[in-house]
Amino acid sequence: MHKPLYSDPADHIESTDPVRVSRYRGITRLNHWVTALSLIVLALSGLAFFSPHLYFLTGLFGSGQIARWLHPIIGVVLFFSFLLLFLQMWRLNLPKPEDTTWVSRIGDVATGHEERLPEMGKYNAGQKFIFWAMSVLIVVLIVSGIMMWQQYFAGLVSIPVRRVATLVHALAAVAIILVFILHVFAAFWVRGTLRAMTRGDVTGGWAWRHHRKWLREVAGRSSKGPAE
Amino acid sequence: MSDTAPQPTTAAANPPVQPLESNLLPSDVVRISATPDVPQPTRQLTKVAKLIDVSKCIGCKACQSACVEWNDTHPEIGENIGSYENPHDLTPDMFTLMRFSEWENPATNELEWLIRKDGCMHCEDPGCLKACPAPGAIVQYSNGIVDFIHDNCIGCGYCVTGCPFDIPRISKVDHKSYKCTLCSDRVAVGQGPACAKACPTKAITFGTKDDMTALANERVEDLKSRGYENAGIYDPEGVGGTHVFYVLHHADKPSIYSNLAENPRISPIVEGWKGVTKTAGMAAMGVAAAGAVLMGLFTRNKVEPEEEEAAERLVQDREGI
Ligand code: HEM
Ligand code: SF4
């Protein structure tokens, strides 16, 4: 059986009156929240070293020593946790022709004029950007982070290389925090989105408004129950 | 009543016997890691320096022994790997190390055995302090001594990244960074460093930076008169000068002395990381967070009831209900 183009095989219509569409399985949601929590812990502990004005954040972890010890360990957790998410989501995040139109009408996106945008699959171009930015930045962060990791990898790279790694790590950290802010903002701003990651489903109206192509595909096969 | 210790001007003097108050106080600190706007001290201590005259060193390692003894460190028993260097690198328990190198002088075709005492240079512009993220873990006193305050050290290794001389070492036991203190605890009570006191040939001398510079100039003259045309002082400008400095017989080629840095300075990468990256990064994150909060408060993207109905029709059509 061929793979659906705009939806995950597990996505399905949960109820028809009112319409509820299942978007994420429980295991995927758990995976997402482990990743999110790791990222928050990493941002808070990392920022403590980033600026003297934020050093007080080490208090959240007990002491500077503990924050220093914990940060890279959570980094490894983040990497593997995100890897699992990546494997589940990469295919539906591949670029599609309608993404170009979406980006060129970014003004309508920001003002909420969704009727002027093309119909979208499970992810729009903004969500795809966040996905790929996170993917690239997490790889950059783990590679540079391991080069900086004194406790276990002190002799791994020469000091000049470590300097570059540290600069790259700091820049990538700022970038991923910006992407994270955008991600959290979008999840709140677009009302009805959060429940996709809490309860796992969204309303039919939400799917119609934001991801109509996805809704059409899921509805089209749903009489047969979850596909395949 | 005890008196305040004098500022030491030599390591040769014997210690006074009466108890003395420390003369190196928290209020004498001019720079503190991860601390902007340090209140400047009201007094300026005399700048001190340790001069290492490489041409006089016989490689006996009395200085290493004195260092271990005074600092009460316990380096592991070494192994012979065919070099006089022992241990084979600086360690968290060995703050100074005699580095030996054999160099064939192309001018004379003679083999020269170069011995350099390696350790913290006590830079006027210390890269370790600049890189350190932990407030108060590294301080610089007005007499030039750069000291690690271990209670505040978190063991991140940024000092290693920042130091142009590859000096600090992180302990695998307590995960804190260690290096030569220039015997700040001895200097505080009017004593010179233990290594300078132990050196049998006066290859290591200690005193005010001015006195030591004068002595170094004398030594350079003497070496020149003996045919070492390129003799000179190694007190690198790139780090603002150092409070441990060398007399070298081949000052034109520092790197022959076991890779002594040719033009040490804080790496521009470290400067960029601790400078513009921090300012621009904080600004970008602040603006993004504030913008997100404002836009989130004043606007939203909401699903209309008609859209719920449209979805219902779509789903029912498709399902054929
Ligand atoms: C993915 C694996 C990661 C690893 C292995 C890692 C490792 C490290 C290490 C070793 C340090 C030096 C401090 C310490 O030893 O604890 C550090 C600093 C830092 N990390 Fe990470 N990290 C990772 C991910 C992240 C992420 C996702 C963020 C941001 C959300 C982040 C933000 C920072 C920041 C801001 C610093 C301070 C940089 C500076 O001082 O300029 N790290 N990281
Ligand atoms: S030599 Fe290295 S450890 Fe010593 S003061 Fe200079 S930067 Fe700091």
From TrEMBL, chain A:
Query: What is one Pfam family matched by this protein?
Result: Ni_hydr_CYTB
Organism of origin is Paracoccus maritimus
Q: Which cofactor does it need?
A: heme
Which UniProt key words apply to this protein? Cell membrane, Electron transport, Heme, Iron, Membrane, Metal-binding, Oxidoreductase, Transmembrane, Transmembrane helix, Transport
The keyword Transport is annotated on this UniProt entry: yes
Molecular function in Gene Ontology: formate dehydrogenase (NAD+) activity
Its taxonomic path starts at: Bacteria, Pseudomonadati, Pseudomonadota, Alphaproteobacteria, Rhodobacterales
Q: Which family does it belong to?
A: Belongs to the HupC/HyaC/HydC family. Belongs to the formate dehydrogenase gamma subunit family.
Q: What class of enzyme is it?
A: oxidoreductase
Its membrane topology, per UniProt? Multi-pass membrane protein
Question: What protein am I looking at?
Answer: Formate dehydrogenase subunit gamma
Gene3D superfamilies the record matches: Transmembrane di-heme cytochromes, Chain C
UniProtKB/TrEMBL annotation, chain B:
Instruction: Give the highest taxon in the source lineage.
Output: Bacteria
Keyword set for this entry?
4Fe-4S, Cell membrane, Electron transport, Iron, Iron-sulfur, Membrane, Metal-binding, Oxidoreductase, Repeat, Transmembrane, Transport
The protein's location, in the record's own words, is: Cell membrane
User: Source organism lineage?
Assistant: Bacteria, Pseudomonadati, Pseudomonadota, Alphaproteobacteria, Rhodobacterales
What GO molecular function terms would the record report?
formate dehydrogenase (NAD+) activity
Residue ranges spanning the membrane: these are: none
Q: Tell me what this protein is called.
A: Formate dehydrogenase subunit beta
Q: What is its EC number?
A: 1.17.1.9
Residues in 4Fe-4S ferredoxin-type domain copies: 48-67, 111-143, 144-173
Check the record and name the InterPro entries matching this protein. Answer: 4Fe4S_Fe-S-bd, 4Fe4S_Fe_S_CS, FDH_Electron_Transfer_Unit, Formate_DH_bsu_Proteobacteria, Formate_DH_Fe-S_su, Formate_DH_TM
For the region Disordered, what residue ranges are annotated? 1-22
SUPFAM superfamilies in the cross-refs: 4Fe-4S ferredoxins
Listed PANTHER family? FORMATE DEHYDROGENASE, NITRATE-INDUCIBLE, IRON-SULFUR SUBUNIT (PTHR43545)
Q: Where is the composition biased (Low complexity)?
A: 1-15
Family annotation (PROSITE patterns): 4FE4S_FER_1, 4FE4S_FER_2
Which principal EC class is assigned to this enzyme? oxidoreductase
Question: What Gene3D superfamilies does the entry give?
Answer: 3.30.70.20
Say if the entry is tagged with keyword Transport: yes
